[in-house]
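ok so i was messing around last nite and threw this chain in just to see what happens. nothing serious, just curious
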Amino acid sequence: MTMRRKLGKAIFSLAITLPIVWGAQAQAQDNVSLRLNWYIGGLHVPFYFGVDKGFYKQEGINLTINEGRGSANTVQVVGAGTDTFGLADSSSIINLISKGGEVKSVMNILSSTGFSVVSAASTGIRTPKDIEGKTLAVSPGDPIRGLLEALAAHNKVDISKVNFVQVDPAAKVVTVLEKRADGLLGGADDQFFLLKYRGVEPHALRFADHGANIVGMAIFTGNNTLKTNPELVRRFVRATKRAWEEAKKNPDAAVDVAMKVKPDLNRQSTKDQMVVDFDLMDSPNVKGQIGLGHEKDWTQTIDLLKKYRGLETSLNWTAFHTNEFLPK
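result:
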C-alpha cells in the first residue's frame, strides 16, 4: 500500500470516528435531582412541564423530581447532598443558613408569599381586624404562625383575641369544613382551592396584601455544588426559567403533563393553584422578572423573621440568596 493510500485511509477513519466521539460527548447528561417542598400540586407543574418538553435535556440535565415532606425537611435533604436542588420557602432556607447550613438560594420562584388566613366566605373575614374573636386552625411548629404576629402588629390586631386549635397539617381543611374553626393558616394557592372544590366558597386574607410579605418559594442548592459545578447551576436555572415562562403561556398543556404524572389530581384545582402562583411570582419590587431575588424583598423577609420568628443572624441578604446564575 502506498504512503498516499495509507494516509487517505487514516483520514477517512478519523472522519468516521470523530462524529461518533463528539456525538457521545454531546449526548452526555448530568444526572440531577430536584426535591420539592411537598407532594405534587399546582406550584410544581412547571417543573414537570419542563422535563416533558425537554428543556432540561437541552441544557444537558437528566432531571429526576422527588416529592417533598415540607420545606424544613427539603432544606435538610439538599443540605446533606441527597438531592442536587430543592424548592423550599425562604424562611426554611434562611433558618438553615443562619445555623451554619451549607446551602444558598439561587432563584426566586415566588417573590411574594401565598400565606393567608383561608376561611369560608360566610365567616366574614375580610380584613386583619376581622380575625379577632375567630378560631383558626394551625399546626404545631407552623411557620405561618409567626408571620401572623407580623400581620397583627402591622394592622393593630389584638392577637390575644384570636383562638387557635392545633391540628395536623392535612386536617386543617377538614377542621374548617366541620366548623370547628372559622379559618386556617394556609396558602392562597393551596387550601383555598381544597375548600372550594369541597363545595365551600372560600376567601383568602393574604398576608402579602396587608404588610406582612416575605419571599415565597425559592430554588436552592448546596454550597459544594456552587463551588464545584457552577455551570450546572447556571444551566438548571436557565431551564427552570424557561419552564415557568412556557407553563405560564400554556397552562392547559402544562396541567396535561401533571395529570400524566399523577392522574388522581383534580385538574381544575391544580390549574387554579398554578395560576395563583403565577401572580405570586411578582412582588412590589419585582415585576415580570422570573427568578430575580430583590434586595428589598429578601431584607424585609430577614427582618420579619428576626422580629417575629426568633431568627438570630447578622448576615447580609447576599449570604442567603444570589442572582449570579440568572440568564443575562
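not much to say yet. The radius of gyration is 23 Å.
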